[in-house]
């Protein structure tokens, strides 16, 4: 036991140690020269939580309650943003007088032609899907700045007014990291009077490799009624992803949004 | 250090009998004859069979699982997950009772505990570092926090069972058995942190997930302490014990915390509190210990999906678990009065606890990463058990010849 002076190791023991560790390191370095053959992870049937088998099955009333609960919790994380035709916005901007001649209140803005839903990702920064040829415009008193716009991915990073309960918010690390197949999710979309929600069942789908995105994406056909601009949350209010793509809608998962967000915050870099 | 007769260890591990050896040289036996002799010799000596449960029940579970025969369907495996959680709590209690008894003799056990913890920490770090390097270098996709994942893999690798020898066969085996008992404590404690890392990374959740296992474990321990010794009959006491363990497993599952850690704290509480509640619980748990082990191994075998990713991750796991055990034993052996090669050899079998860790983390990780971890650890466990059975008996033969 430990009540005596430690016995020194013999040379044989040390040689054995050096041999085993050396072989392990060399083999690891050799194996690490290969690239992993598959770049995307296929979706597999998820396992349920340990207590799920004992839980009562949800009825429609319970589903209504769950969705109301989700909307109540994630509404502060979303901002309804009016959208107008890009050409209209530029025309109005050119026609608008300089700031020293006319105050901000009198600056003419085009009428909203559509509504988009931005999701707060960190502090006062929000991401939203912006359809081609559309641009976010200011809504009455609230000031919304476009920090960055990525037309290729149809995503804009906005600086939005703070809201109660969003101080110190960091949405993406707490998001769902993998596709929650075979489950209901809350699909949030924008209306002129605020966000609304629909239950969407997400089935099985194979992930797609899209060079524009750093992680595998999923076709929006995995769930019904998933239109571009829809923001997906799990029923326990964790962010799943954003539906983008006017032509071929896809669900961009949270990890890909996170990578894009970092790239947009760092001008000159592109997501890998 | 007491010199051990050269044939003792070989006999205990199933090698040629010393009397046979002295009768004269013979042709080397065929592999099949060697396996048969291995089993027969150990049975004749009244020792545990050399084929450890992992070698038998992991392949059996795989054969019964959805990938082969389909007797254990995915829906059934889902329903078994709660039973697995309770089984993990039972294993945690057994480790906690063993630790509590060592802690009663703090002075004698402290050095052993520190050496065992050092050995498991070294193995954990080496496997985690190798896996981190390998995953990053090869561009392997991972749908989980990479730090949490590699730490989970390292913790699975750190487990040892010392099942390749009878504890009474020689002093090194006795020491290795105690080290194997105690080297699971640090990984179970670290698993609390890894669970928090893998969970929703908000401050509140990390606090809850770090504090919940000891609090629940202590509460379960107190409940058991109040109930067990006051039971009026044996069956009533068994109901109390199983109910208390169900509470431990259920609470851990509900809060997504480690049932192993909850069980560990409950087991320690029962041992350290006055009375004989630890003996009561241990006696009752002994009845369910073997079914629990079988349940864990069969479930792990059936749940494992041997994907390309799992196979890809296997070489660094095998190589660096071996290197970690040898390094850990080399660092710990001078404090334990054993040869480091002996200690490393006896600690080579991962045992059931490696599978328990893997099942535990697989419940918490995203599906893809969880299945990859479980499959890699299951394959690695079976490989190391076979390694311990066939290679370890030869490990010291050259030195002793």
**Main interface by residue count:** A-B, 50 and 65 residues
> Which CATH class of the largest domain in chain B applies here?
Mainly Alpha
* Total number of strands of chain B: 0
**Overall mean pLDDT score of chain A?**
77
**Helix-strand category of chain B:** mainly alpha
- What gap, in angstroms, lies between the N and C termini of chain B? 18 Å
Secondary structure: number of strands of chain A: 12
Query: What does the overall shape of chain A look like?
Result: elongated
Q: Which structural class should the secondary elements of chain A be placed in?
A: alpha+beta
Major beta sheet of chain B, specifics? Answer: none
Under CATH, the topology of the largest domain in chain B is which?
Na+/H+ antiporter like fold
Name given to the CATH architecture of the largest domain in chain B: Up-down Bundle
Radius of gyration of chain B: 21 Å
Helix proportion range of chain A: 10-25%
* Helix run count of chain A: 4
User: Per CATH, which architecture of one domain in chain A?
Assistant: Beta Barrel
Radius of gyration of chain A: 25 Å
Task: Please give the oligomerization state of what you see.
Answer: heterodimer
Describe this structure in words.
- The complex is a heterodimer of chains A (272) and B (401).
- Chain A is an alpha+beta fold and 272 residues long.
- Chain A has a domain at 174-265: Trypsin-like serine proteases (Thrombin, subunit H, Beta Barrel).
- Chain A is 21% helix and 26% strand.
- A 6-stranded antiparallel β-sheet of chain A has the order 4-1-2-3-6-5. Chain A has a 6-stranded antiparallel β-sheet with strand order 8-7-10-11-12-9.
- The model of chain A is unreliable at 1-5, 39-47 and 98-103 (pLDDT under 50).
- Chain B is an all-alpha fold and 401 residues long.
- Chain B has 2 domains: 1-50, no CATH class; 56-400, Na+/H+ antiporter like fold (Up-down Bundle).
- Chain B is 76% helix and 0% strand.
- In chain B, helix 13 (277-303) packs across helix 16.
- Chain B starts with 7 loop residues before the first helix and ends with a helix.
- Chains A and B meet through helix 1 of A and helix 5, helix 6, helix 11, helix 14 and helix 17 of B.
């Amino acid at each position: 036991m430990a009540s005596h002076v430690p016995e020194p190791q013999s040379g044989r023991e040390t040689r054995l140690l050096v041999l085993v560790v050396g072989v392990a390191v060399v083999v690891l370095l050799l194996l690490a020269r290969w690239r992993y053959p598959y770049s995307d992870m296929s979706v597999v049937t998820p396992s349920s939580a340990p207590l799920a088998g004992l839980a009562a099955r949800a009825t429609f009333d319970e589903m209504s309650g769950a969705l109301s609960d989700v909307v109540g919790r994630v509404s502060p994380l979303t901002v309804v943003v009016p959208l107008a035709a890009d050409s209209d916005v530029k025309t109005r901007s050119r026609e608008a007088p300089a700031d020293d001649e006319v105050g901000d209140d009198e600056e003419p803005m085009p009428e909203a032609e559509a509504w988009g839903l931005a999701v707060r990702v960190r502090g006062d920064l929000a991401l939203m899907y912006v359809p081609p040829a559309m641009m976010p415009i200011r809504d009455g008193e609230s000031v919304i700045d476009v920090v960055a716009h990525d037309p290729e991915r149809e995503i804009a990073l906005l600086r939005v007014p703070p809201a109660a309960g969003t101080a110190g918010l960091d949405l993406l690390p707490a998001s769902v990291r993998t596709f929650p197949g075979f489950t209901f999710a809350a699909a949030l979309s924008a209306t002129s009077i605020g966000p609304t929600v629909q239950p969407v069942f997400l089935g099985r789908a194979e992930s797609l490799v899209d060079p524009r995105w750093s992680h595998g994406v999923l076709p929006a056909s995995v769930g019904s009624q998933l239109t571009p601009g829809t923001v997906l949350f799990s029923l326990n209010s964790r962010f799943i992803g954003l539906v983008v793509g006017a032509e071929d809608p896809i669900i961009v998962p949270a990890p890909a949004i996170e990578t894009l967000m970092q790239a947009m915050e760092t001008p000159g870099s592109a997501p890998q | 250090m007491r010199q051990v007769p050269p044939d003792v260890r070989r006999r205990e591990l199933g090698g040629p009998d010393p009397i046979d050896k002295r009768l004269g040289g013979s042709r080397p036996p065929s592999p099949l004859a060697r396996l048969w002799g291995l089993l027969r010799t150990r049975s004749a000596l009244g020792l545990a069979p050399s084929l450890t449960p992992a070698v038998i029940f992991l392949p059996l579970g795989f054969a019964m699982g959805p990938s082969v025969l389909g007797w254990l369907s995915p829906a059934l495996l889902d329903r078994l997950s709660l039973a697995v959680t309770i089984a993990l709590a039972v294993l945690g209690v057994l480790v906690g009772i063993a630790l509590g008894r060592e802690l009663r003799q703090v002075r004698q056990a402290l050095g052993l505990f520190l050496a065992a913890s050092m050995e498991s920490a070294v193995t954990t770090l080496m496997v985690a570092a190798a896996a981190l390097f390998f995953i990053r270098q090869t561009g392997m996709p991972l749908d989980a926090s990479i730090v949490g994942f590699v730490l989970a893999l390292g913790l699975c690798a750190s487990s040892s069972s010392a099942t390749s020898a009878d504890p009474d066969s020689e002093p090194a085996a006795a020491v290795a058995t105690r080290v194997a008992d105690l080297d699971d404590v640090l990984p179970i404690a670290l698993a609390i942190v890894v669970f928090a890392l893998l969970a929703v990374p908000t401050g509140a959740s990390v606090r809850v997930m770090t504090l919940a296992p000891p609090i629940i474990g202590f509460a379960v321990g107190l409940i058991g302490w109040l109930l067990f010794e006051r039971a009026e009959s044996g069956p009533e006491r068994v109901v109390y014990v199983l109910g208390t363990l169900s509470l431990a497993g259920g609470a851990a599952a509900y809060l997504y915390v480690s049932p192993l850690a909850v069980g560990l704290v409950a087991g320690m509480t029962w041992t350290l509190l006055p009375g004989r509640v630890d003996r009561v619980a241990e006696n009752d748990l002994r009845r369910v210990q073997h079914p629990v082990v079988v349940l864990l191994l069969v479930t792990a075998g059936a749940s494992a999906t041997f994907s390309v990713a799992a196979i890809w991750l296997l070489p660094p796991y095998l190589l660096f678990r071996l290197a970690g055990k040898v390094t850990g034993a080399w660092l710990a052996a001078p404090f334990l009065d054993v040869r480091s090669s002996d200690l490393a050899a006896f600690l080579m079998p991962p045992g059931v606890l490696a599978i328990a860790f893997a099942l535990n983390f697989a419940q918490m990780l995203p599906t893809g990463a969880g299945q990859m971890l479980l499959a890699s650890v299951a394959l690695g466990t079976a490989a190391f058990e076979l390694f311990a059975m066939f290679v370890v008996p030869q490990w010291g033969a050259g030195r002793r010849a």
